[in-house]
Design brief:
This protein is an alpha/beta fold. It is built from six helices and seven strands. Helices cover 32% and strands 25% of the residues.
């Protein structure tokens, strides 16, 4: 059993990231940012003008980690490494966020159909006065999707809390001909890179 000095804070609401951290035996406590405040969310996730996908996902992740670091001190919580991550899907340098409704989900999947797109996940670990960041990129090749397949998938709950309107860990796995990169990165937390950063912050993996 790992001691309390081996626990981290996870600044993410994603249940998939929690599952992936548990998979590699990382003990964590949630340190969540707020997104429904009178003054707006703690971190703005809107894309800035002319911002490219890699710059966007790196910026948002770093801002999440930095705000969580400040929150840890404001609340006088035990000092631990903080892990933040953000994932975006991109095609033709356009960023595909989480669809608001069936029409948006359908349009995204139609755009991805029969093509190769990229999934970028950026990770930041902050501990004491140091921070480490990696952005991992995977390529995903979709088969050509029929309108019936798209409609059936969009009738489920799966597309609506995921960038690009699909999750590789769900039934959309049947859309994917092949990937080049990290399966866990496409899920939202590339475990190889995550382990590297956590080890630099003093967290033992295995």
């Amino acid at each position: 059993m790992k001691n309390s000095h081996q626990k981290i804070y996870l600044a993410s609401k994603s249940p998939r990231r929690r599952e992936l951290l548990r998979q590699i035996g990382v003990d964590f406590e949630l340190l969540l940012l707020r997104d429904k405040l009178p003054r707006g969310p703690d971190v703005c996730e809107e894309v800035l003008e002319h911002e490219l996908p890699a710059a966007y996902v790196a910026r948002v992740t770093l801002e999440k980690a930095a705000f969580a670091f400040k929150t840890m001190h404001w609340r006088r919580l035990p000092v631990r490494p903080i892990l933040a991550a953000d994932t975006t899907v991109t095609i033709d340098n356009a960023i595909l966020g989480k669809p608001a409704d069936m029409a948006e989900a359908t349009a995204m999947l139609q755009r991805l159909s029969g093509r190769t797109h990229q999934v970028l996940t950026s990770i930041v670990v902050i501990h004491l006065e140091q921070s480490w960041q990696i952005t991992q990129t995977s390529e995903v090749v979709f088969q050509t999707l029929s309108e019936q397949m798209i409609h059936a998938y969009c009738a489920t709950s799966e597309p609506y809390d995921k960038a690009g309107a699909y999750g590789i860990q769900g039934s959309a796995a049947v859309f994917i001909e092949r990937i080049n990169g990290s399966h866990s990165g496409i899920m939202g937390l590339p475990l190889f890179e995550t382990a590297q950063l956590l080890q630099q912050a003093g967290i033992r993996i295995l």
